[in-house]
Amino acid sequence: MRKPIRTRLVDDWLVRGAQAGSRSAFERLARRWQEPLWRHAFRLTGRQDVAWDVLQEAWVSIVTGLARLEEPGGFRRWAYTIVSRRATDWLRKKGGPEAVGEGGLGLPDPEDEPGEDPAEGSTRSESLTRALARLPRARRLLLDLHYVEGFGVAEMAEILGLPEGTVKSRLHTARQALRDWMERTER
Amino acid sequence: MSEFQDMLKEALIGDEPFQEHQNEAHLQEAVRRYDRRMKTVRFMTWFPVGFMTVLVVGCLWRFAVTDPSEVKELLVYALLFVFAMTAIGWSKLFLMMMHNHVESQKELVRVQMLLLALHDD
Fold it and tell me: Is B120 on the interface with A (CB under 8 A)?
């Protein structure tokens, strides 16, 4: 996870440079965020090729809006929000299975899963990995944004365009679903 | 952070298949878009200046051709205009210098914080 203060400071520096017309500042900024933004697009869309397209469209919006960005240190949140919007547009256009922040609640019972033998010996982390693979994409996204990217609830709400209370409760539900799954597999 | 949350973080990291070879091409495309945008911004900034200059010079030229006696008067007005603009320019420059002094102090603090953060890292 990136250190928040360092991230803000470096972003602030690079965005100011890019706003002033420095090509190298923009290139550094793009190199710095390309991979995390692609991962975000991929988590939202679930397809590699689409994630690249979404990211490309997001860069167009970023380039256009960069001069108007009033808080350069907040680039990360702003860029993630743009990627979320472009991905949502794509999901809506394609009539995708779930839009950002929607989707089913949780996990099936491990005993109902085909090929899933709860008695089969596995470590807790393996069990967690299996549970994550079965978690609906929108739920998994919340966990990624919170635990991997280090976003707070307020930031996630802004990125996903959802009320803070909704993000908080869905995050809690996703976490609880994983805990329940693990308890059931351990029984 | 609890043991469960640590484990969760570990399980979440790094299972997306990021393709490095596609990355470079897309990066260059983003930089190209930035370059194009900057060119447009520069054009939009300098076009009005160029247009006004051509207009003023064109008008003076036309007066000089049609009625040379008026040119002297016009040049006096133009000179007065230039003086006025220079005075405004100098006072603006002074204000900008004051503003820049404050901004450079802020910038200095930002650089110090950046260096501190990099050092901590």
Answer: yes
Tell me how many residue pairs between chain A and chain B have CB atoms under 8 A apart: 93
Q: Is the pLDDT of residue A121 over 50?
A: no
Contacts of A147 in chain B (CB under 8 A): 5, 8-9, 12
Query: Do the Cβ atoms of A147 and B8 come within 8 Å?
Result: yes
Tell me which residue range forms the domain holding A170: 110-186
Flag whether pLDDT at A106 surpasses 70: no
Residue spans of the domains in chain B: they are: 1-66, 68-121
Greater confidence (A123 vs A179) lies with A179
pLDDT of residue B34: 94
Task: Determine the straight-line distance between the first and last CA of chain A, rounded to whole angstroms.
Answer: 33
* Structural contact between residues A22 and A72, judged by C-beta atoms closer than 8 angstroms: no
A34 and B37 in contact by Cβ < 8 A? Answer: no
User: What CATH number does residue A153 fall under?
Assistant: 1.10.10.10
Number of structural domains, chain A? 2
- The whole-number pLDDT of residue A108 equals 54
Of A9-23, B44-58, B101-115, minimum mean pLDDT range: B101-115
CA-nearest residue of chain A to B36? Answer: A63
Other beta carbons less than 10 A from residue A28's beta carbon: 16
| Side-chain half-sphere exposure of B60, counting CA atoms within 13 A | 15
Does A143 contact B12 at a Cβ distance shorter than 8 Å?
Answer: yes
Q: Determine which of A1, A3, A26 to mutate to test the interface with B (most B C-beta atoms within 10 Å).
A: A26
Tokens 């009625």 sit on residue: B67
Is there a contact between A164 and A153 (Cβ–Cβ < 8 Å)?
Answer: yes
